[in-house]
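Onboarding guide, step 5: your first structure request.
Type a short instruction followed by the sequence, for example:

Predict the 3D structure of this protein.
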Amino acid sequence: MFESGIVAFLWLIMRILVAVYVCVLILVVIFQARLLYFPERRLIATPGEVDLPFEEVHFWTQDGVILSGWFIEAEKPRGVVLFCHGNAGNISHRLDSIAIFHRLGLSTFIFDYRGYGESQGSISEEGAYQDVEAAWSYLVKIRETAPDEIIVFGRSLGGAVASHLAKNHNPKGLIIESSFTSVPDLAADLYPFIPVRFLLRIKYETVKNLKFVNCPVLIVHSRDDDIIPFTHGRRLFDAAMPPKEFLEISGSHNEGFVASGRYYVAGLNAFIAKLVGEL
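The system replies with structure tokens like these:
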């Protein structure tokens, strides 16, 4: 009698654990977008607050969404950076990077994906791809910027967006910083106990995009990255077609470019100098 009670109790525990596990799987399927995107609507600052003159820009996507961005022009620019930011915040949280590109003699066009900052709509993977295409079109058609003057830059999630654009166009160069090979790959690293590869609709397959990118590529990643493992950066580098370079920085996922200071800036400058024919 005692033994049968223990067996019944253990079966009950197993059923509860299975039910909890199934609930977790269902939540992953339903709320995966909320687990990936963390947009903020309020702009906390502008380039003007760090003494950078800028132009507010609004432009349309092909599916009729109005997006918002800033164009920060450099004096005698070496090129134009098309800046694709990460999954959290908005353009106002990227002033440090904008300032770095400005010191490097580059104009910068940074925009918010739909659902971020002052951009209309709601973010999705397909929407992000349409957004970056609209940003490219704005630079090329409205500002009449030649494609071979545009350097596409993407950090974290923005690396996937930037690589998707670069495989379809011919920019001067592509810089991918602190990014992942794909969302399923990253999720599998972070949650090995969940069959995420079979559950995720959101892909962002950076590593596959890079196989079709024909411009020079710079991959930047830190061994200290606390969100996206360093191995993702190395796999991206391996997938990219030559000419390609790898810049290893130090520091956390969100602070690596700041923590690496002059080393990071020098690495960017060396790559840019080759792109524009200075070396």
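Each response can be followed by summary notes, for example: The beta strands are 38-39, 55-60, 66-72, 79-84, 88-89, 106-111, 150-155, 173-177, 217-222, 244-249.
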